[in-house]
């Protein structure tokens, strides 16, 4: 009978170790959980047998379970079940001091069998909680990074994606326009946010976020990953066009060339992943005029004029460059504005010169009016009449 009990204890230990390994949970955490569950079971089933202040210990090697009552050492005893006098405690062991706890084994017969059923539910719940916590931490570490997922199904425009250990949803607004998702398609996703949830981590993903482009460049361009080349800014209209501003911390490394790669292989790999989304790689500059001019690529800029308000500018281009600078439906200038953070007003050379002429004429007219007013006020009627005639002519 003793051998059978010992074998059963060994099986419990082996089972706990197997669960810990399978679930990726700490063995010690499982043992402590089981001990807490055993304490709850003892209090429930042996409420009238003495102290309710108990400690349960499970031997980590043999699985043997022992229950100990805990009585605190006090000056005056009011409850024999939970307290013991200092004098009595010192009779047990002279080292005891006030507020120490005296332990006494009170393991009931067949306690393991009685407690097992009560403990099972608590242990199962703790294991689930631990699994959710581990899963949350795993994906939380990947927040703002990219992850591969497998398309499972479509429902009401949403795409359900298997991430391996959990599932997430790609909402319609985070899907790239014109991109089709079929069952078992493997797609890269950008993890926007990971939240803790009672049922497991809630993972928000996107295919439209500029962060997806940033991470793809970091993956494809070693110089970016190593910090030699920096991505300073990104503006994106997913599925159509992206502008990315880069800068090199090494004068010998050309940032745009590093991103393009030999024969365009690096950027082409990213374009393929984004289903032929157009990518403009431009050189960042701390000089706003130069940066704005670069951002309007592929258009050639003649001049950038910073307005007095400090966040707006006027850009002058050749007449034949105007439509290119603005872009189809204003996309090029819109992305350039997002990239630089400046409000951009584009004018062709002809428009700008006409604008200057109109301003000059307006200024001259105002000046004439001022001179005429001064002449009238001074009583110089002849001069005023001459100015009036000149103005009429």
UniProtKB/TrEMBL annotation:
Gene Ontology terms describing biological process: DNA-templated transcription termination; transcription antitermination
Query: What keywords does the record list, in alphabetical order?
Result: Cytoplasm, RNA-binding, Transcription, Transcription antitermination, Transcription regulation, Transcription termination
Q: Cellular component per GO?
A: cytosol
PROSITE patterns to which the protein is assigned, alphabetical: KH_TYPE_1
Example of a GO MF term: DNA-binding transcription factor activity
Location(s), subcellular:
Cytoplasm
Q: Using the record's annotation, list all stretches that form the K Homology domain.
A: 238-311, 312-368
Q: By its UniProt entry, which InterPro entries does this protein fall under? A: KH_dom (IPR004087), KH_dom-like_a/b (IPR015946), KH_NusA_2nd (IPR058582), KH_sf_prok-type (IPR009019), NA-bd_OB-fold (IPR012340), NusA_N_sf (IPR036555), S1_domain (IPR003029), TF_NusA (IPR010213)
SUPFAM superfamilies assigned to the protein according to its UniProt record, in alphabetical order: Nucleic acid-binding proteins, Prokaryotic type KH domain (KH-domain type II), Transcription factor NusA, N-terminal domain
Pfam families attached here?
Answer: KH_NusA_1st, KH_NusA_2nd, NusA_N, S1
Q: How does it associate, per the subunit comment?
A: Monomer. Binds directly to the core enzyme of the DNA-dependent RNA polymerase and to nascent RNA.
Query: Family, per the entry?
Result: Belongs to the NusA family.
What exactly does this protein do?
Participates in both transcription termination and antitermination.
PANTHER family documented for this protein = TRANSCRIPTION TERMINATION FACTOR NUSA, TRANSCRIPTION TERMINATION_ANTITERMINATION PROTEIN NUSA
Name the UniProt record assigns to this protein: Transcription termination/antitermination protein NusA
| Lineage, top ranks | Bacteria, Bacillati, Bacillota, Clostridia, Eubacteriales
